[in-house]
Amino acid sequence: MRYRVKLFPEITIKSRPVRKQMVRCLRTNLRNILTPLVPDVRIADCWDALEVRIRHVIDDATRARLEAMLSRVPGVHEVLVIDVHTFVSFADTAERLVALWQAPLAGRRFRVSVKRRGQHDFTSADLERYLGGALLDASPDAKVDLAHPEFNVTLELQDQRLRLVTRRLPGLGGYPLGTQGQALALISGGYDSPVAAWRLMRRGLKTHYLFFNLGGAEHEQAVREVVHRVWQGYGASHHAHFISVPFDGVLDEIQRRVPPGLAGVVLKRMMLRAANRVAARARISALVTGDALAQVSSQSLVNLGLIDTVSERPVLRPLIADDKQTIIEDARRIGTAAHAERLPEYCGTLSKRPNTRPRPDQLDTAEADVDMNVLDAALEASSQTRVDRLLDTPAPRTRDVPVIGSREALGEAEDVTVIDIRHPDERDAAPLELPRGEPLAIPFFELGERAPQLPPNRRYALYCDQGIMSKMQALRLADQGLTNFVVYRGHHHAEH
User: Fold this and answer.
1) Do 281 and 324 lie in a common domain?
2) pLDDT in tens, the chain (496 residues)
């Protein structure tokens, strides 16, 4: 069995040295990906293509996996599935061709193209005319169109060896992975960042992954699964690393010190500061984010500019002009959408009224009060794992955080105390109204320290406007053994 791997057209127009280097890299990438599945695979250079040769019979399941792998390799434009036969005669060739093309050609325009090498007593045009006639006899409503065919029925004849293209599989396109250097993708597990990483892998960037953990062990495990899926599908020809940085301490410090309207931008700036330090250690020259212009408040043009001022490296944003639906469709294509649907986006929940046009001096003033030692501590506590080993450890058992979803249910729960974890400014602007009593006021950034001191014989229902930060804190406390924290989503405030 053979596969003809056609090069991405942009590769073919490069200068000869660049083209040779890219083809050499693509051949190595194909060998790295396919050898674990088919150990005796051979890959030959045919100048305008590479030919993958399988030297033994493989079962249908292996064939399906192999073809899926070939279709996802960056740098591949198209994969031609080729059957090899001994050339017997025009009639025998026509019989084989009709079996393959009779149904697809019904009512369509086609041409037959023969590439012939060796000594024969006929010309390529002779064979093309004969085979075209046979196909017309088999599909009378088809038409020959040499200039603009819908199907180009191709075959090769080298001496007495006949190669027939039985199927065509679309490739991923782009440039071979590793030909454009390395990048560090800031990955969250939502829709955007995995798609951004995938798009630049398709353009030849070897991509490593940096995760800022705000949601505990379960959040990290979910992101590990996303990263492993993207790498296994599109980047398995290269080793890559996954760096996890516990960022809850940084988030607590930001919520404690920074005005709510600036908290989201300051958090992104802290992430870029950390990313630059990680990239510097690994000699990585660029960062990748899933930002799309105006999608959320921190992605306004003003805020993106202010975020970038703290970066020593270019920040690549392949999704910058994309609609959300386009991003979601790509997430479905690469198999990460199902994960994104289950993961909350923590960064967008920091403040209710974010500032989309802050002044640089406002940010400087806000960050002046932030203890930058928390960033040092987060990086010191970071961990690094090779991506191919991300799933070696078993996933933690999934926990569902109990939710009290109405004031009525809260009123019936006599053993529950509500804790309002919103920023003091948000609490003052919209005080929480309960069916009885008053909530405890413990801001998000203080709860981790104060929770162990609360009486253990009660349940505590955490409240915030969207419920996401409450769930995040409940999971973090559960990781510490405090399992008596639930989420309250009553959404009733007192009138001012």
Assistant:
1) yes
2) 799 999 999 999 999 999 999 999 999 999 999 999 999 899 998 877 999 999 888 999 999 999 999 999 999 999 999 999 999 999 999 999 999 999 999 999 999 999 999 999 999 999 999 999 999 999 999 999 999 999 999 999 999 999 999 889 999 999 999 999 999 999 988 899 999 999 999 999 999 999 999 877 878 888 999 999 999 999 999 999 999 999 988 998 998 899 888 989 999 999 999 999 999 999 999 999 999 998 888 889 999 999 999 999 999 999 999 999 999 999 999 999 998 887 765 554 555 577 888 899 999 999 999 999 999 999 999 999 999 999 987 555 556 788 888 888 888 888 899 999 987 878 888 888 888 888 999 988 888 889 999 999 999 999 987 777 788 888 888 878 898 999 998 765 554 3
**pTM score:** 0.84
**Which residues are annotated binding-site positions for ATP?**
186-187, 268, 290, 299
Active site residue 347: no
Cβ distance 279 to 375 under 8 Å?
no
Phi, psi of 243, deg, nearest 5 = -110, 125
Give me the catalytic one of 25, 46, 347, 464.
464
Query: Would you list which residues are annotated within the binding site?
Result: 186-187, 268, 290, 299
Residue 255 belongs to domain with CATH number? 3.40.50.620
d(C-alpha 171, C-alpha 194), whole Å = 20
Q: Which two tokens stand for residue 233?
A: 């599908």
Domain boundary among 328, 360, 389: 389
Q: Tell me how far CA of residue 75 lies from CA of 79, 180, 285, in angstroms.
A: 11, 12, 22
Out of 138, 173, 208, a domain closes at 173
Tokens for 459, please give them. Answer: 């349940």
